[in-house]
Amino acid sequence: MTDTATTPWFLTGNFAPVHDELTVHDLPVTGSVPPSLSGRYLRNGSNPKAPTQHWFFGDGMVHGIRLEDGRAEWYKNRWVRTTKLAKGLDAMDGEAMLDPTASAANTHVLAHAGRIWTLEEGHFPYEIDRDLDTIGCDDFDGRLTSAFTAHPKLCPETGELHFFGYSPIAPHLTYHVLDAAGRLVHSAPITVPRGTMMHDFMITRDHAIFMDLPVVFDFDNPGAPIRWDDHYGARIGIVPRHGTDADIRWFEVDPCYVFHPLNAYVEGDTVVCDVGRHESMWRNGMNDFPPSFLHRWTFDLGTGSVHEQQLDEVAHGFPRVDDRVQGLRHRYGWGVAPRDGGRVLLDDRVAGVVVKWDLSAGSQSVFDLGPDSHPGEFVFVQDGPDAGEDEGWAMGLVYDAATDSSDLVILDASAPGSEPVARVHLPRRVPFGFHGSWIDDAVLPET
Ligand SMILES: [Fe+2]
Predict the structure, then answer these.
(1) 106 within domain boundaries
(2) pTM above 0.90?
(3) CA 251 to ligand 1 centroid distance, Å
(4) 217-236 in b/e burial notation, b at 16+ Cβ within 10 A?
(5) 353 CA distance to ligand 1 centroid (A)?
(6) 401 in a domain, yes or no?
(7) Rounded to an integer, what is the distance from CA 441 to the centroid of its chain?
């Protein structure tokens, strides 16, 4: 039995890790899997094997479901075999922090250049194969000199993967680009005043956009080595794609934190950034986690002016757009929110809903999956190459607290409020996790 009085919250309930690796074929489905869906839904998360001090630091485990010909062909889950896992390192051990291969590999999983990457923002990426088995760590022929963010941005027009690395040690920020073949073709250090925790970033058709926000490293303060700093300020750096430190322009914004933007795009002389804005982060320790609300920053590149606007009152997490509009003007967005309209996300006691934003109409709608449902991140999957921006499916893992079980839920993205198209019943609960991707066979064919 778990002693919940002394066990950290991230080792209890559906945050608790699972301890085995399964392979189960021919999963039961309620409804019907759209027959045109051929590929894998993969989702990464923290599933600590070694001792860990925070949910964010647990060893990465990928859960995957393969869909083909209207069937849910398999479910698999695999730890990512990292140096950290092999050695049983705590992420806060000096060895884990200094060894670039000692990734938790727990934050995201995505495909680029015919390969599948598991990512965590403090280390090098790890590649896994189509069956979720680990291939190994990659430093791009020794050319990668920084960590690799868990939130790279794949340009739908060029096929480039733009990314960055941040560090408490100088250089604190480095901008990188992989070309469509997966070769590291651009690396440029960017000057910032000190190391800040830079979880995500944005691209437009023309730019990369960095968020230098007041969550700073403070290793002289062992009780809070990452903390809010009221004096640091907050600035957004906009640099031309493939640009360098000499090209960047910084814009001051009101202090805040952003874990996840929704998307950014260029409109005339302005850059528009829709982001999940937290009023602060970790001001009073690492359990101080205010909710995020969708905000729009508009940066006028001609006049240098900045405009900030809150777009709605929905406390949300996991914002995503259709991957086909990454860096381009979006109309729709996807997220999750508390079912009760409150401000608490990802709690065993607070159920959630899937949110669909219509930014053109200035409205949002929900898919309510039931009073005990806890949806994680949902991703949009288009219904064929010519489909419109919400013509397809929204797909994600949902934990049901009443039955202690998990489903892959497939929604008709164009019909908020409708019942799921399919619920693929998984052979075990899947712990709450972080980010994932639909990896279509058109992108990564079966071999
Ligand atoms: Fe993230």
Answers:
(1) no
(2) yes
(3) 23
(4) beeeeeeeebbbbeebebbb
(5) 19
(6) no
(7) 21
How far, in Å, is the centroid of ligand 1 from the Cα of 70?
Answer: 31
Q: Are 71 and 26 in contact (CB under 8 A)?
A: yes
pLDDT at 15 over 90: yes
427 neighbors 27 (Cβ within 8 angstroms): yes
Q: How far is the CA of 91 from the centre of ligand 1 (A)?
A: 17
What average pLDDT does the segment 24-50 reach? Answer: 97
Do the domain assignments include residue 103? no
Domain count, the chain: 1
Query: Which residue, among 308, 298, 296, has the nearest Cα to 362 in the 3D structure?
Result: 296
* CA–centroid distance, residue 402 to ligand 1 (Å): 27
With respect to residue 143, please indicate whether it lies within any of the assigned structural domains: no
pLDDT (tens digit per residue) in 139-185 = 999 999 999 999 999 999 999 999 999 999 999 999 999 999 999 99
* 150 CA distance to ligand 1 middle (Å): 7
Domain limits at 272?
159-311
- Residue 188 contacts residue 205 (beta carbons within 8 Å): no
Taking the centre of ligand 1 as the mean of its atom positions, its distance from the CA of residue 298, in whole angstroms, is 23
For the chain, percent of residues with pLDDT exceeding 70: 99
On whether the CB atoms of residues 424 and 27 are closer than 8 A, the answer is yes
Sheet with strand 332-338: strands edge to edge: 317-320, 332-338, 352-358, 363-367
Inter-residue contact 165 to 149 (CB < 8 Å) = yes
Q: Note the pLDDT tens digit of each residue in 335-346.
A: 999 998 888 877
What's the burial of 357, exposed, middle or buried (CB within 10 Å: 0-12/13-18/19+)? Answer: buried
